[in-house]
Amino acid sequence: MKNKAPLFWLSAFVVCFGLYVAGWVHGTYFEFVWPFGDQHADQTVVGSDSHDDHAGHNHDDHAGHSHDDHGHDAHAHDDHTEPATGEFLELSEAAKKNLGLTDAYLKPVALQSYQHTISVPAIVVDKPGRTRLPISATMTGIVTHIHAVSGEAVEPGDLILEMRLTHEDLVTAQKDYLQSLGDRDIELKEIARIEAAANSGAISNKTLLDRQYSRDKLDSLLRSQRESLRLHGLTDVQIAKIESDRRLLAEMKVYAPGPDEHSEEEHNSGVVHSVASHRSKTKHTLVLQDIQVQKGQSVTAGETLCTLADYEELLIEGQAFETEAGMIAKAKSAGWPLSSIVGAGADVERIENLSLSWLNNEIDPATRTFKFFVTLNNEMLDDRRNPTGQRHVAWKYRVGQRMQLGVPVAQWVDQIVLPIDAVVRDGVESFVFQQNGDRFNRIAVHEKHRDQSHVVIENDGAIFPGDVVALRGAHQMQMAIKSKSGAAVDPHAGHSH
């Protein structure tokens, strides 16, 4: 019996070793249960698309994700707190930065009002009577100096050019005015001389009264002559200078006018000032668009000298269809602000809170379009002087620039509104990415409405107010999930080392 014991154990060992080799050959090693103990019986790894390689890891920080802080039942989120396999991403801090997911783009969802808009093509145009400021010669003369060149920026009160006056009627009118001024001076001196004698009784009061009547006639004549000089284009300042200097005005200086800031002189002449011309009280930048005369050129009254442009305030001309005229009129009466989109791709810009200025009262018979106009405040991008001292500026918005106007036609309240970069479309599905720690769960949502910049999400429980959602990068995260799900199964996929 003692000799049989070693033989028994040797036989048992051979049988077990044979079974071990057979299981290894047929690829069933991981399903084989060692007969001498159950300490390895729980080491089962299923090689399927379920990616259960996470089963051995402790993810209690995600599994217990609750939304009690948002004021609703945590169980209401059980359908998306644990998404289906392949419907989440774990992003490192570097990946978040690459996607631009800063704190500004990781915010809780909040209900807000949304204005349903229609998109209308538009173009930037001049503001009639304000953008273009033509300057005309009010008197005949010869250009003697040009102080500004085309494209140069000037301010109200800056000297543009000088002219030598050659208008014969103007010369005659000035000479008559000077003559009348001299006669009045003589009359005033004579009145002063005889006034004392009349008071003492040395001469009769009739003589004094005759002199005073003559003075009054000269005052009346001077008033009429001043009006004549104004009709010739002189300003009150220039007339006062003739009176003080007692010299004919031989030169005319043309200054840049101040938009919407008309002095007494500007009301009379529009553009011409004397050397004492006062500047605009507010700093305003104009651009000398073109100058149409040159030094030594003879010009006649009414001839255009140059054209200034004021680009600080322009208009956006919307071109809507005839059928949309009623909706635009409704937005105007409701006082709803408009928005505009300019540029494309990475350079796209959205301009908010635009004011609808006025509506055209006619339909274009050729295109059947309805025009309306929106005020556009411009911005100066560059302001510098060249080596010769000439100042040049560049404006952000330019006449002729194409835009898209968003006109609100209805207002919805208590809606989930997300930026368009927060929602990605994949076939018939739309997804957002909800943050849960470093994990971003892909949640299927229903789109109620989509425009060029925002998407309105149905408040049906897919996401709730208070959920933190990635407000950008949804397309890139969707591509990453698709790439992950389409790759060959890797036992280590999903592990973060």
Please list the strands of the largest sheet in the order they lie side by side.
3-13-16-15-14-19
- Mean pLDDT comes to 79
User: Radius of gyration from the CA trace?
Assistant: 44 Å
Give the biggest sheet.
6 strands, antiparallel, barrel
Description:
The protein is of the alpha+beta class and 497 residues long. Helix content is 27%, strand content 32%. It contains ten helices and 25 strands. It has helices at 4-25, 60-63, 78-81, 93-99, 168-200, 205-231, 236-245, 264-269, 325-334, 474-486; strands at residues 88-90, 106-108, 111-125, 132-136, 141-146, 153-154, 159-165, 251-255, 272-273, 286-291, 298-299, 304-309, 313-321, 338-342, 349-363, 369-377, 380-385, 391-395, 402-419, 424-426, 429-436, 439-445, 447-450, 454-457, 468-470. The strands form six sheets. The chain has a six-stranded antiparallel beta barrel with strand order 3-13-16-15-14-19. The protein has a five-stranded antiparallel beta sheet with strand order 9-8-7-5-11. It has a four-stranded antiparallel beta sheet with strand order 1-22-21-20, covered by helices on one side. A hairpin with a 2-residue loop joins strand 21 (429-436) and strand 22 (439-445). The longest helix is centred in the middle third of the chain and has 33 residues, at 168-200. The protein is elongated. It starts with a helix and ends in an 11-residue tail after the last helix.
